[in-house]
Amino acid sequence: PGGFATPHLPPPPPGADQRLWGWFVAVDEDRSGSISARELERALQNGDWTPFDIDTVKLLMNLFDVDRNGRIGFNEFQGLWRYIKASYLQCLDWQNAFSHFDRDRSGTIDGAELQQALSQFGYNLTPNLLHLVQRKYYLHSNVTASTTETYGRYPSGITFDRFVRACVVIKQLTESFRRLDVNRTGWIQVDYDQFMTTILSLP
Fold first, then answer.
1. CA–CA separation, 145 vs 123, rounded Å?
2. Do 115 and 181 sit in the same domain of this protein?
């Protein structure tokens, strides 16, 4: 009698990991039974407590949104979680890999550190490609005023969320190329339809 009732989690699906289910329910703020990009964005954070870049969040969601409804159900969420926590560098996850290659402890990855990280992951990009990747995902310190007012001044470089995004994109592009490179020569010949199909099939 009196006081407040202790809130209870909805029962998890059979065989579900209780801890993962609890996190899924916590992220599902509107209790819809699925997670939107904005809900996931609020749940994912960089090492400095700033939110993940929304384009990175959408990219991760697209990888596992099997039914293409724009949201992530629990089964899809389990795949996403395993992907985020997957070991990449001698049983280190992305966050630890990022910290490992952030040798100057700036909170960002610069060009030299990015090259070392990608090389360890098996992606030996030419200097020209590395420059393009760095230019695409590099975050300059002069970001929008509203962002800096809310989260403070960002350092220049590639932040953790953009590092994840770069790794995912390079991985997907490399796998698509290898599927076409049946003779493993490092060269492919594709027509326009094959090229467009490959690009548009990427998340």
1. 35
2. yes
Please report whether residue 74 resides in a domain. yes
**What's the average pLDDT block by block, 10 residues per block, for the chain (203 residues)?**
48 85 90 91 70 82 87 90 59 68 82 84 88 83 40 63 85 88 91 86 70
> Are both 36 and 79 inside the same structural domain?
yes
The pLDDT score that the predictor gives to residue 187 is 92
Whole-number pLDDT of residue 163: 86
Question: In this structure, is residue 49 part of a structural domain?
Answer: yes
Task: Say yes or no: 72 and 117 in one domain.
Answer: no
DSSP-derived secondary structure letter, 109: B
Q: What CATH number is attached to the domain comprising 65?
A: 1.10.238.10
Range of the domain at 123: 106-141+155-202
Domains identified in the chain, total number: 2
pTM: 0.62
What is the per-residue pLDDT for 138? 84
pLDDT at 143: 43
